[in-house]
Design brief:
Elements lengths: L1 H10 L29 H12 L3 H10 L10 E2 L10 E3 L4 E6 L7 H13 L3 E6 H6 L1 H13 L20
Parallel strand pairs: 3-4
Antiparallel strand pairs: 1-2, 2-3
């Protein structure tokens, strides 16, 4: 299954809408409100499987985030973004929360490339250790609140904007 995921991530490219734009109503199964195109069915199946088999720490944090329980912010759990399935995502705040266990120490390179991809899509990534969720849930929630209240980074302007009318003649 891991090989199939890697293969999928190598050939699947996610093309998001520009910042601030939203697509209209869903027009095709698997198409999200802020996505162009459809998400591959296999990726949706993996996300569904992961939602139905959460780790104890995911379940514990999800109980605090779901149904706008954290200061009215809407979170998604195991919802695909490009070839990746982040643990939690708040699209409005462009914030992703990843829970990391001991296995993440062995795959730091993969996590870095994943984080870079998500940052390129305009998201901020907050990584939290499973042990912190177990032992310091209130502190984790405080950290998430701080990240939610932080302003989004400014969007870069185009490198060569169109000249105003009358220029360049």
């Amino acid at each position: 299954m891991a090989e199939a995921r890697r293969e999928l991530s190598e050939r699947f490219f996610y093309n998001p809408l520009p910042a601030g734009e939203r697509a209209g109503a869903r027009s095709a199964p698997g198409e999200g409100l802020t996505r162009r195109g459809t998400t591959p069915k296999q990726l949706l199946a993996w996300a569904k499987e992961m939602r139905h088999q959460p780790t104890p720490q995911e379940e514990q944090l999800w109980q605090q985030l779901r149904a706008k329980r954290l200061d009215g912010w809407k979170f998604r759990h195991q919802s695909p973004i490009g070839p990746f399935i982040p643990d939690f995502c708040c699209p409005e705040a462009k914030l992703i929360i990843e829970l990391d266990g001991s296995q993440h120490a062995e795959r730091a390179g993969y996590d870095e490339s994943r984080t870079e991809f998500l940052k390129d899509q305009g998201y901020r990534v907050l990584r939290v250790w499973n042990s912190d969720v177990d032992q310091h849930l209130d502190g984790v929630l405080m950290l998430i609140r701080e990240a939610l209240s932080a302003p989004l980074p400014a969007q870069a302007s185009p490198e060569s904007p169109s000249p105003p009318q009358g220029e360049g003649n």
